[in-house]
Amino acid sequence: MSAPDPVALLLLTAFRHTVSEPNVEAGCARIQELAGQPIAAEDFHAALAACLRDGLIREPVRIPEGALQCHWRLELTPAGVVAARALSQPSGA
Question: What are the boundaries of each domain within the chain?
Answer without folding.
Answer: 6-86
